[in-house]
Model the fold of this input.
Amino acid sequence: MNECARGLFITFEGTEGVGKSTAIRLVSEYLTNRGIDHQVTREPGGTPLAEEIRALLLASREEAVDPTTELLLMFAARAQHLARLIRPLLDSGQWVLCDRFTDATYAYQGGGRNLNAEPVATLEQLVQGDLRPDRIFWLDAPVAKGMERISDRAGGKDRFETERERFFERVRAVYRERAKTLPETYRRIDAAQPLEEVEQALYREMAALIDHS
Done:
């Protein structure tokens, strides 16, 4: 691969408890073993200011958070993340692995919060321009299974993790629809299967991606 070429932007999506962190670790190790420079980051977050916004978004609070406020904060963090970390890394030739990106906003705010896709799409264009992920790994499992996995998560649950099951069913439904409309970018990984099979599925997809990069 030409070292001067733009790096690839790979994102990992899914509802709670589907194993995104494990998937990112596996893919990061895979790239390291093949000598591909990359960096792992997350959303919301990734830079000091964006992490401060993340803390605001995830904190449990008595005051109800308006869905539009939540949406705007997500994109405020994303704008900073893109400007200060993601775009410079990609331009330098490094690959970026990101735990969630704008597809999560379509799913959680557009679907889960019932804001629909239009305001998300407007902000996506404003903040990102033509930048979109080169590959989206959607870790998919039944909502009930994911909720069971996080039921005893150490350190307690954040504001999103305490949502009810029907919220996450709406989130999952949006991911399903986006996977249908973006088949060239999305790769569904069955996160309900044993870890060894998830690992092999990720490795197959990564091998194909590297071969075509």
